[in-house]
Amino acid sequence: MEKLGEIMMNYYMEAKAPPEERGNRKIAWITSGGPVEPLIAMDMIPIYPENHAAMVGASKMGGDLCAKAEEIGYAGDLCSYARSDIGCSIVNGGPINGLPAPDILVCCNNICGTVMKWYEVQARYYDVPLFIFDTPICHTRFSADAKQYVINQFMEYIALLESVCGKKMDMDTIQEVGYRAIEAQKLWQAILDTTTYKPSPMSAFDAFFHMALIVTLRGKQIVVDYYKNLLAEMEQKVANGIGAIKNEQYRLLWDNIPIWYRMRWLSKKFASRNACLVADTYTSAWAGSMRYVNPDDLLDSLAEAYTRIYLNIGVDQMAEEVIGMIQKYDVDGFVMHSNRSCKPYSFGQYDIEAIVKKKTGLPTLIIEADMVDERNFAESQIDNRIDTFIEMIESTK
Amino acid sequence: MNVIKKMQKIVNQPDEYAKQWKAETGGKVVGTVCSYAPVEIIQAGGALPFRVFGNGGNVFSFADTHLQSYCCSLVRGILNQALAGDLDFLDGAVFTHTCDSMQRLSDIWRMNAGLGFHEDLVLPVKMEGNTAREYMIRILEALKTSLEGHLDVAITDERLGHAITTMNQVRTAILQLDQARITSPSTVSSGDLHMAIRAAMIMDPAQWLDMMADTLSGLTNTAGDNGPSPGKRVILSGAVNGSRGIHDFIEEKGGAVVHDDMCTGIRYAHGLVDESMPPIPAITDRYMHRVNCPSKHTGIYARGEHLVETARATHADGVIFLLLKFCDPHAFDYPYLKTMLDDASVPSILLEVEDPFVFGGQAATRVEAFLEML
Ligand code: SF4
Ligand code: SF4
User: Fold this and answer.
1) What is the pLDDT of residues A223-253, one digit of tens each?
2) What gap in Å lies between CA B150 and CA B134, rounded to an integer?
3) Do residues B174 and B290 lie in contact, with contact meaning Cβ atoms separated by under 8 Å?
4) Contact criterion met (CB < 8 Å) for A132 and B139
């Protein structure tokens, strides 16, 4: 089985090669929740600044790059994916010395409004076209008006890609890409679902690692192959009763984006207390709205699936989803990362916490930190709070 | 100026005004949180659109159990008032989609405040192009239908037309006052104008026009008589400004705020609704064409070009940015706006503020130094 690190390295190396060495394929930067299928169908190379920013964070290079953006006037409380990316563009920093310059920017606001402002910054910096794929938030419902609006934009999006690439979109190809993306998403969900077994064969920390492909390359065969193997591996572990941690006593649910620069520390910390983060609200976002996809009516149903993702719904609906996960994965506690960087993910968490407590009685823990900017991490305080939280679970179990 | 004193009182105690209006008219009061709320539709339903500001001071004891400290003070302040019971006179609210913080405020309000009906107007983020325009027309139509239910009245084109005319008069009046200040800043103090605009966001527009009538007719007589600006001319740019302190300070120091690009300022009045068009498309087009807020998109240089152009047209010597702490949309735009101003040789400074903005201390020292430097 090809290693994930190798796949990702090849992907970035190809993207960073001079245009003639990558068959003059165009580069599109796209937000993590954006519709990538048309890009793959047009044989463009999609680049995900958010995935790259997560790598920056995991390499503990976030603070420095964020500081670069702050030096040129960006406020220190802006999303650290955006800050580190803006800093990275200027100095070509980070673990792979910067991303390849885009030919086009595709910004889908189904995750936040921040991405629009961030991509505007980059559209000025790189002087390339910016397509905003506007997916109205579904506070309480997904209206027919919103659906029509999103479908219309799908057509505009495709027309723009055709003009950037100087060729027509092949509708059969986009169908095929769409089917492969669906297959990958189903496999990804199946992988995440193996953690319903006890002991759980993998933890959320593993999911944070393996998710890179569903984010960046869904629609490609390599993703389907990789996840098939991964699923088989997890099923084998389940069959053999091998858990992600040695002694799984407590099962936890994680909310919000990982604290990338503290993954190892956190995973060791929880493992040392015999606690396994078996599921999370983040990695499931790439499969969560699968229920809306209809293979026979692909484009229209994708419009719905892209609009109704986890972050683009009301807080009360998010709470319902969380409760669904609590039941499905049979967890003993709920850990929330109050992430200073991500306002749409974090505001509303207190309400979700209250609803969860009321409806399930589960102990909850809120850790305040930042996903990429390691300057915002109070280790000893968080260490203590985790201990107290586990003790609380012990006393209630 | 007696009228301004009255308006100042209304701005300081908006709840008193709204309660009295209700008692007198028997009408309903509908909360709004942003200048993208289509007030004409609410007014055509016979209700009072009431702009909620973060008047809550800097203690957010009610909001703190729902929102983290890294949320902007405007959103925390609005929620705090709603939960503290300060807005109990509201019959409902219309939330317009702008930034991430407002988006979540809408949810949290809906789930906890219990203040009548709740409408989410999920505007397009693109204020350009036919696709977005068509969508916006459809959702405004849908809002109209919902409001007809909540307010129990048929919102006819005739009623809409009337509301549009009245609001156009309010906006024209504000723009006239603004123009008078650009020509001759001593005509009306910028602090007074600031108060008048904020009062317009709370008051019944007909009442506001009535109150302002003398001031406005006086304006036509005196405009241009007072000669050019005595001192340095500045523009304010940012989101909300909940106090007149900075206006008065600049005037005391011999300068003048000749114009602004603020939600609580001229941006509220910018652009008129075309009265010859069908009402809903006309309201839509006003939003599509007026100067946008940074949470909306109309091209990647639109706001910068507008600011530089305004600075030129108003002969401004400098720009003061009032950046609300934790306000993402404005914070993302600030660096490029500053660069464009630098390139046009317009000096600027950045003040980090909270809502309400208690002006003084270090901010005052910096503004004073800036005025001297200009
Ligand atoms: S982390 Fe949050 S604010 Fe930043 S880009 Fe992602 S969804 Fe948007
Ligand atoms: S635009 Fe800025 S000031 Fe206005 S609510 Fe959003 S974050 Fe707060």
Assistant:
1) 999 999 999 999 999 999 999 999 999 999 9
2) 25
3) no
4) no
Distance of CA A375 to the CA centre of its chain: 22
The amino acid present at B373, given as its one-letter code, is M
Tokens in use for A370? 């930042």
- Burial of residue B172 (CB within 10 Å: 0-12, 13-18, 19+) is middle
Q: What per-residue confidence (pLDDT) applies to B56?
A: 62
Q: Please list the residues that pair with A366 across neighbouring strands.
A: A336
Rounded Cα–Cα distance for residues A124 and A108 (Å): 18
Q: Residue A261: beta bridge partners?
A: none
Q: Which long-range contacts (CB under 8 A, 24 or more apart) does A309-313 make?
A: A309/A33, A309/A110, A309/A111, A309/A285, A310/A281, A310/A284, A310/A285, A311/A33, A311/A110, A311/A111, A311/A112, A311/A285, A311/A344, A311/A345, A312/A33, A312/A110, A312/A111, A312/A135, A312/A137, A312/A138, A313/A137, A313/A138, A313/A139
- Cα B202 from Cα B170, distance rounded (Å): 12
DSSP states along A275-332: EEEEEETTTTHHHHGGGG--GGGHHHHHHHHHHSSGGGB-HHHHHHHHHHHHHHHT-S
Q: Measured between beta carbons, which residues in chain B are less than 8 angstroms from residue A140?
A: 110, 120
Measured N-to-C along each axis, helices A144-165 and A298-307 cross at an angle, to the nearest 10 degrees, of 110
> The whole model's pTM is what?
0.96
Q: Which of B265, B257, B267, B260 is nearest to B295 (CA)?
A: B267
Which residues in chain B have Cβ-Cβ distances shorter than 8 Å to A139?
A: 103, 106-107, 110, 120, 122
> Does B68 lie at the interface with A, CB-CB under 8 angstroms?
yes
User: How high is the ipTM of this complex?
Assistant: 0.96
The secondary structure of residue B352, as a DSSP letter, is E
Summarised one tens digit per residue, pLDDT across range A307-348 is 999 999 999 999 999 999 999 999 999 999 999 999 999 999
Helices vs. strands in chain B: H and E counts, helices first: 15, 8
- Of A113, A149, A314, nearest to B135 by CB-CB distance is A149
Residue for token digits 């100095």?
A91
pLDDT at position B355: 85
